[in-house]
Amino acid sequence: MRRIFLSLTALALIGCGGEHTHPGDGIEISNARINPPLPGQTTGVAFMELVNYGKEDRLLAITSPVSGRIELHTHLTEDGVMKMRRVDGIALPHDEMVALKPGGLHVMLFETTATLGDEAVLTLDFENSDDLTVVAPVVMRGETPGGDADHGSHSGH
Ligand SMILES: [Cu+2]
Question: pTM of the full predicted structure?
Fold first, then answer.
């Protein structure tokens, strides 16, 4: 069983153009997805889950060809009102999962051209680790790519 699981993983990695996950070592990114701007707006939002199997690290910035400017944000409640606040970075403790999700930490894509049904490359810049690249499908708000993390989106092609 173990061998079968490993070869499926290898195939999934090849299918995605590889290189963006390092199971058991370094930082693994899953479930990356982008919500396109609402009609009449130009700001999209991205979410993902990061697991850091390596030494403590920090996500500093993200860039993408589909966005003029990307900021890392969190939500906080002030006087009973939920607000967004820019953060300088996102701590990635050793062996912990950090979820960027609606209502919490998230990625703001300003001046974005991300369009529903497209895929976009996100490049993540870390304090210690090498840059990582993920391919994120552009999906409706509230929708997550099915199946095994971001690989699920490829099955529909
Ligand atoms: Cu925000």
Answer: 0.76
